[in-house]
Amino acid sequence: MMKTRVTVLLIAALFFFSGNGLAATKIKLGVVTKPGSAQNIAAEKFKELIEQRSNGAFQVKIYHSASLGNETEILQQIQMNTIQMGIVTGGPFDTFNPISRVINYPFLFKDNAQADEILDGPLGTQILKSLESSGFKGLSFSENGFRNLTNNKKPVNTPDDIKGLKVRVMASAIHKAIWSALGANPTPMPWPIYTELEQGVIDGQENPLWVMEVYKFYEIQKYLSLTRHVYSYHIDVASLKWWKTLDKKDQDMIQKAMYDAAVFQRRDNRSKDAGRLKLLKEKGMEIVEHPDVAAFRAKVANLKNMDLYQDPEVKDMLLKIMEAVK
Ligand code: EAX
């Protein structure tokens, strides 16, 4: 008898102290893409880690597939704290904070190792920090990966092949400028874009390989060129308004869980690229594996002198990163 009562008490105590007896703090996390996407893999890992490490004191609900709106709308809601967190592609940050433009600079990073070195280092931290002036707490960088061009008109080897091509770009001034400089006819459009590609409203788009697989772009795009023109990151953000309501211990726990999830996701993404390329070939895409990257680079060499980069903080950061990756 006695024993049962003690056990019951013990269980009750455990329940209480583990946090489950208290009201859990609910985190709404928004991503624009669907399950299986780079953003979702990071989001799901974060959910798993934070719920486990906080013994359920934090509970994450992931709103995927743009159920809370496109990425610009997700960011607006994060600023207002109607959504607490988001994993959002670098492009749409552009209108909120021009500092995000520096990482979208074309041909900035040579490879993944260089991207990690900068983004996980002091310059990356400085970029995250500067997002606070726009109401975001930047936590870490997960990734989309290097972006590549697909289209339905012809194989692309050189910038000449791009002339007049209607290319969908993210809602981002720098992405639009890149494709104008390359000679295309860029059309900014929020995600998703399958229907527009299918109906021929646009001829092409550019994204990392996982997108072509997960969104089955091989069904509606014939040509792929491995241009790797921009290293596409996500910024894993929280609402600064919400962040300020948390105590230091919880902030640290969330920051660490998000960083660990980001590192996990980057590794996962990179480990799958060779298989994706094989799959896209099997599905019938015609792939230009070695386009004339030097010619593409030459076309965009002057972008750093554009108005887009004249804000002193932005320019300074761009030059520092360029120096660091030399
Ligand atoms: O991951 O809008 C875009 O092109 C982004 O890369 C989107 O997040 C797909």
Report on the architecture of this protein.
By secondary structure, the protein is α/β, with parallel strands linked by helices. The protein has a single domain (21-320), classed as Bacterial extracellular solute-binding protein, family 7 (D-Maltodextrin-Binding Protein, domain 2, 3-Layer(aba) Sandwich). 44% of the residues lie in helices and 18% in strands. The protein contains 14 helices and eleven strands. It has helices spanning 2-17, 38-53, 71-80, 90-93, 112-119, 122-130, 173-181, 194-198, 209-214, 240-243, 248-271, 273-282, 293-300, 312-324, and strands spanning 25-30, 58-63, 85-89, 136-146, 148-151, 166-169, 185-188, 204-207, 223-225, 231-239, 286-288. The protein has a six-stranded mixed beta sheet with strand order 7-6-8-5-9-11. Strands 2-1-3-10-4 form a five-stranded mixed beta sheet, with helices on both faces. The longest helix has 24 residues, at 248-271. The chain is globular and about 75 Å long. It starts with a helix and ends with a helix. The mean pLDDT is 94. Bound molecules: (2R,3R)-2,3,4-trihydroxybutanoic acid (EAX). The site of (2R,3R)-2,3,4-trihydroxybutanoic acid has 9 residues, from loops. (2R,3R)-2,3,4-trihydroxybutanoic acid is lined by residues 32-33, 89, 144, 170, 191, 207, 211, 232.
